[in-house]
Specification:
By secondary structure, the chain is an alpha+beta fold. It has two domains: 59-174 and 317-337, no CATH class; 177-302, no CATH class. The protein is 43% helix and 19% strand. The chain contains ten helices and 14 strands. The chain has helices at 2-56, 75-86, 93-112, 134-140, 146-158, 188-191, 221-229, 268-275, 306-314, 319-326, and strands spanning 59-63, 70-74, 121-122, 163-167, 170-171, 176-177, 214-220, 245-250, 256-261, 264-267, 282-287, 290-296, 304-305, 331-334. The strands form five sheets. A three-stranded mixed sheet has the order 2-1-3. It has a three-stranded antiparallel sheet with strand order 5-4-14. α3 packs antiparallel against α9. The chain is elongated, with a radius of gyration of 33 Å.
Length: 338
């Protein structure tokens, strides 16, 4: 009987108690290992997320148009050179910050939509946006203002670091110009094609206080004929006939859309280019065998007006409010969010 009882107890130990002990030990041994592996995986993923945006736009390839040299430069350093070339350092700090965000946005748009072979953007204002070396910029300022001006420029860039303008989570084509003459223009009226939804006609008060707001250009009848002949050799204008020289159509912003020069109808943009006018917002005055074009504004008029930005800053608007004034229904995001 005793032998049978011992046998039963031994069977219970072998079948139930020992497996339970080993199973528990196994769990305790494997659990920390799994935790370490999971944490390592999570750390790798976090590091990966941090590193991807860091390298994508941190440097750009800049084409120096005069020499053909391509230089790899830090994006934020490049923007200091751009802002100092594009906007006077005497402008309000918030206007300079708005210019920094617009220049950064314009640069990223160019990076994503390459126009130049082997480079992201060039230093020509007639093609991309203006750029000037720090040395040349300092040399053009009064010596007593150099340190103060450069500090103001770099602060404007640094205080907006990484901020860009987007529409529907896409980087916008952030056009800008000198002075809108009080009202900005639609891109379709300048370059044709289709409009961008974020580039609408907006009015800005205070631009008349700047020297870029008004200008005039006077030509003799012969000068007008000779200039238009460079494109239209068969041009004929009877200046005694008022119907031979008149504005036929205006754009939504009040700029000249079509103008009649004798036997040819020219667009306002064409006229501006041929005659070297500062804007397509002009009126014509004919007297003493001369034609005078009274012009409002400076530049194509699309997007942010730089003097308009300064005027708004003087009225108490901050950089982001200035951006939202000139670009419709946009968002300001960090570059890492796109």
């Amino acid at each position: 009987m005793k032998k049978i009882l011992v046998y039963i107890l031994s069977l219970i130990v072998v079948c139930f108690i020992l497996p339970a002990i080993f199973t528990n030990t196994s769990k305790q041994t494997s659990s920390p290992q799994n935790i370490i592996e999971e944490n390592t995986s999570e750390e790798k993923e976090t590091k990966k997320v941090e590193e991807i945006p860091e390298g994508k736009y941190s440097k750009i390839k800049l084409l120096h148009s005069k020499t053909g040299e391509i230089e790899e430069v830090n994006l934020e350093t490049y923007l200091c050179n751009v802002v100092s070339a594009e906007m006077p350092a005497t402008f309000e700090k918030e206007a300079l910050k708005a210019q920094a965000m617009v220049a950064r946005t314009y640069t990223i748009y160019k990076v994503n939509n390459k126009k130049h072979d082997n480079s992201d953007i060039c230093d020509s204002s007639s093609c991309c946006q203006a750029w000037i070396s720090k040395e040349d910029r300092l040399a053009k300022w009064e010596e007593s203002k150099r340190e103060e001006n450069w500090k103001k420029i770099t602060e404007a860039v640094n205080e907006t670091k990484g901020k860009i303008v987007t529409y529907n989570n896409q980087v916008i084509n952030a056009f800008f110009h000198s002075n809108s003459g009080g009202t900005t223009e639609m891109p379709v009226n300048v370059w044709g094609g289709s409009n961008y939804p974020y580039l609408q006609v907006v009015e800005t008060s205070g631009e008349e206080a700047y020297t870029q707001y008004s200008s005039e250009a006077t030509f003799s009848y012969e000068e007008i004929i000779n200039k238009i002949k460079t494109k239209y050799e068969d041009i004929q204008i009877n200046f005694a006939n008022n119907d031979d020289l008149k504005i036929l159509e205006y754009t939504e912003s009040g700029r000249v859309k079509t103008i009649k020069f004798g036997n040819h109808n020219l667009s306002g943009v064409e006229t501006r280019t041929i005659l070297g006018l500062k804007s397509t917002n002009f009126e014509i005055i004919k007297q003493n065998n001369q034609i005078t074009f009274n012009v409002k504004g400076y530049g194509h008029g699309v997007g942010m007006s730089q003097t308009g930005a300064d005027s708004l800053a003087k009225q108490g608007k901050n950089a982001e409010e200035i951006i939202h004034h000139f670009y419709t229904n946009v968002e300001i995001k960090d570059i890492n969010q796109i």
